Amino acid sequence: MKVLKLRSILAATPLPRINHSTMSRIIYVAPRDKSPSGGLRTQFRHVARLVHHGFDAHLYHVDGGYRPDWFAETVPMLTTQDIMGRNRLNLRPDDHIVLYEAASNSVRFFNQYKGASRHLFCQNHFLMFDALAALQAPSWQALGVSRAFASAHVIARAVKQTLGFGDVPVVPYAIDHALFRPAAKRLQIAYMPRKRREDVGFIRRAFVSACPDLASIPWVEIDGQSEERVASILGESAIFLALGRREGFGLPPVEAMAAGCLVVGFLGNGGREFGTPENGLWCDEDDLFGAALSLAEAIRGVEAGTPASAAMIEAGQRTAAGYTLEAMDQALLSYWRGVIGAR
Residue 69, SS3? Predict the structure, then answer.
């Protein structure tokens, strides 16, 4: 077993020595892509928190030398070389494999061994059929997956109603509030264009055309940045343009709320989990011109220091305050203790 040695941003109390050889292993399967995404960050965080609480948890990646460099965390790693035995996989009947929605290659790999339990951790209900389609499988249960859990209630409802799992517990996202917090604000627009790259140009042109006096407002893209850099940009930005589309949840708007931004834009369906009329200027899906006008409204309100703008920012901070490491830990431990047994 290899250990990914990166500085952890989460406080961890030293734990007593544990005999892992007698414990069930929890193995989260990571995607090949290591570019910035909330889903990958959450997989690492689950494993780190489980280890912190005494579980024998690991992140599996097909290749050695897997090193996402945009956040800091310390987790035990397993690779294909660690899992492969001479005649069969080095798995035990009491191991638990945690798959993601599009993990078709990993399903094929781990299904060489029939004994270990399989779980679906769904972070985006729009992707929940991806592996099934790739494998031409009728259901996740047909692939040996016996349990499912999700990262948001909107996802859990879709998985439960569509995929035939009787119970789909929710392990909510956590925000590092020591990192995502307000700083000295600038009148600038931070934005994450990943899901709506073609729409950003239209929104910017509509914004400038409708409000030429605001044409000099800077726009700062946060895609592809390190977690610390994203937090720094959000902390100093007055406005965040949410460009979510077909989201399972959509972390950037909530991180922006925690950083004291006034949030404008799209909920992307999954954002219904947190979005309210009080905590953001939310637009109808694909109302790009409406987003441009809402940006102008937000900027004018922040610049003037209106009570309505201040109240919306405060409501956003209250929303973000509910997504804590403690809340994640409670739900995460409840799920795995229920599966493996109390610790």
Answer: coil
